[in-house]
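Team,

Forwarding the record for the chain on the shared tracking sheet. I've put the sequence and predicted structure together so nobody has to dig through attachments.
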Amino acid sequence: MMLTAVRMGGIAALALLLSACVSTVLDVDGKATQPIPAALMGEMSRKSMATSAPILVRIFKQESELEIWKRDRSGKFALLKTYPMCRWSGKLGPKKENGDRQAPEGFYHVSVGMLNPTSQYYLSFNLGYPNKLEAALGYTGEALMVHGACSSSGCYALTDEGVAEIYAVAREALKGGQGTFQVQAFPFRMTPENMAKNRNDANFAFWSDLKQGYDIFQVTRRQPKVSYCEGRYVFDREFEGGEPHDALAACPPALNVADPLIASRTQSDRLAMESLLSGGSALSAHAYADGGMHPSFRKLLERSGQAALSKRTSLTSVPVSRPEAALADPHSENE
C-alpha cells in the first residue's frame, strides 16, 4: 500500500510537470537578488517613479506583450516598459481545466510568496490561478506562471533576460510595502476593432466583463477593485453588507454608481464596435494552432531556427515549445 501511495504521488508530480510550468531546480544563485538594470532605473527616474513604488502588470495574448506599469509621483500608474513575449500556448480564451494548454485570462493578485527564485525557467512568479471566481466555476489547473525561456504549457514565457527585469521590479515593489500586485491578463487589447473581430466568439460575454476592468484602468490609470458575483467579475463596486462571499450568487445591491467618465468610454467603444460591424468592414478573428509568439521572436525563429532562438532566450537553452505552431501565429505587427 505504501509503494502504491509513493507511485501515485510520483505520477501526480509528473502530471504537474507536464501540465504546467513548475520549478525543478533546487540550487539558488544570485539571479533572484540581482538589481534592477541601470537603464531601467534611469527610465524610472525620468518618469518620476520610485524603486519601491507599486506596480501593475498587463498581459495581452494576441499581441504577445507584457506591460509593467508603475505608480509615479502623481499617484497614478504610468507605463514603465513593454516586453515582447516569446511564447504562450493554447488559444484566445480562459483556462478552464488542467492540461488544456490554455494560458489564464482574468485578474490576479501576486504576493511575495508567489515569486519563485528557483524556477526551472530561470525566474518566475505564480499568477494564482485559479482565483476565487475560477475556483467557484470549477476550473482546474495550477502552477501557471510568468517565467523565462521560450517554452509554454499554459504559462507566459518572457525570456530569461525579460523575466529577470520583471522579477527585480516586482521584488522591489513588494519589498517597498505593496502587499500584492495586480496582473490583468487579456486575450487582446480591448479596442473596438478587436472586440468587433471577436464578436461571434463563445467567450465574448466573458471578454466584455474583462473589458470593464480594462476601461477603468485606461481612463483612470488606477488599479480597479475586483469582486466576484453572479459567476463573473465585477469592478469598482461597493456592496450592501460588504464583499460578496459566494462568487456564483446574485450580486448584493450596490452602494455606488458607475463613474460617468468610464461609462462614457465603454459606451463610445460599444458604438464604435457596432459601427464597424454594420459598416461591413472585413473583420475576422485570429485562429491559433497552439498559442503565439511576438513577431520579433518569430523573425529570429524563421531566420535562424529554433536552436538559435533557444540560445537567445534561455541561459540553459531551454527548447522552444512547438515552434511550428509559433510560426503559424497569425498576428502581425501592423495590426
